[in-house]
Amino acid sequence: MTEAQARLAEAQARLVAALVAGGDIPDGFDPERMRAQAASLVAKRRGIVTRIRPDTALAAGPDLASEFAAYARSRTAPPPNYRTDADDFAAWLRERGRMPDPPSRKPRWWSRLLP
User: Fold this and answer.
1) CA–CA distance from 54 to each of 59, 64, 78 (Å)?
2) Residue 87 reports pLDDT greater than 90
3) How far is CA 21 from CA 35, 39, 40, in A?
4) Comparing 77 with 92, which gets the higher pLDDT?
5) Which domain holds residue 94?
6) Cβ contacts of residue 68 below 8 Å, gap of 6+?
7) Which own/partner pairs from 101-106 qualify as long-range (CB within 8 Å, at least 24 positions apart)?
């Protein structure tokens, strides 16, 4: 990797951190636009997460937007996929007493037949 590529990678990492993890806004970017874009990205994630796990939206209730924003700020980077994001948000709500524990799985009828 050349020095120019390393500088570009570092600048991109700072930009991503500002957009998804509440990092400092890099020089040369309009702070108001960066905040708007960051809020838009969080809203997009929240919408997808609540479609994947509607139980999280029910558990958070009217505080969904603020709860998801707090969850998103608590992470240094978003999870690798939306399913993981949804499950992590559910766990985050559960840790705060906002969501019940998942029901225990019933043993399958055929498990009685196994030695």
Assistant:
1) 9, 11, 19
2) yes
3) 11, 11, 13
4) 92
5) 3-99
6) 42, 45, 46, 49, 60, 89
7) none
Q: What angle do CA 68, 70, 75 make, to 5 degrees?
A: 95
- pTM for the model: 0.77
Residue 27, domain member (yes or no): yes
Which structure tokens are listed for 37? 């874009």
For residue 106, pLDDT beyond 90: no
User: What contacts 42, CB < 8 A, 6 or more positions away?
Assistant: 68, 69, 72
Per the structure block, which two tokens stand in for 1? Answer: 């990797």
Total of domains in the chain: 1
Residue whose tokens read 């498990």:
111
Query: What is the average pLDDT score of the chain?
Result: 90
Read off the tokens for 14.
């700072």
